[in-house]
Amino acid sequence: MNEFDVVIGLEVHVQLKTKSKIFCSCSTEFESPPNTNICPICCGYPGVLPVLNKKALELAIRVAIALNCNINREIYFERKNYFYPDLPKNYQISQYKMPIGFDGFLELLSGKAIKIKRVHLEEDAGKLIHKENYSLVDFNRTGIPLLEIVSEPVISSPYEASEYLNYLKLTLQYIDASDCDMEKGFLRCDANISLKPKDATKLGTKVEIKNMNTFRGVVDALEYEIKRQESLLMNKKEIIQETRLWNKDLSKTISMRTKEEAHDYRYFPEPDLPDFFITDKMLEEQKKFIVEKPQEKRKRFIEQYNLSYKEVDIMISDLWLSNFFEKAISFYNRPKEISNWLLGPFLEKYNSLKDKDKIKISPENFSKIVKYFCEDKLNNLTAKTVLDLCITTNADVDDVILKEGLSQVSLEDELIKFIDEIIKENPKAISEYLNGKKEAIMFLVGCVMKKTNKKANPKVAKELLERRINEKSH
Amino acid sequence: MGNINLINLSGFEIAKNIRENLITSKEVYQFFYNRIKELDSKLNSFIEVYEEAERKPDGDSQLKGLPIAIKDNICIKGKKITCASKILANHISVYDATVIKKLKEAGLKIIGTTNMDEFAFGSSTENSCYFTTKNPWNTKKVPGGSSGGSAAAVALRLVPFALGSDTGGSIRQPASFCGVVGFKPTYGLVSRYGLIAFASSLDQIGPITTNFIDCAYLLNIISGKDKNDSTSADIEKIDFTKYLNEDIKGLKIGIPKEYFKEGLDKEIKESLKEVIEVFKKNGAIILDINLPHTEYAVATYYILASSEASSNLARYDGIKYGFRKEEDSLSKLYTSTRRDGFGLEAKRRIFLGTFSLSSGYYDAYYLRALKVRTLIRLDFENAFKEVDAILTPTSPTPAFDIGEKIDDPLSMYLSDIYTIPANLAGLPAVSFPCGFTKNNLPIGAQLIGKEFCDGILIRLGFSYQCKTDYHKRIPEL
Question: What is the ipTM, given to two decimal places?
Answer without folding.
Answer: 0.96
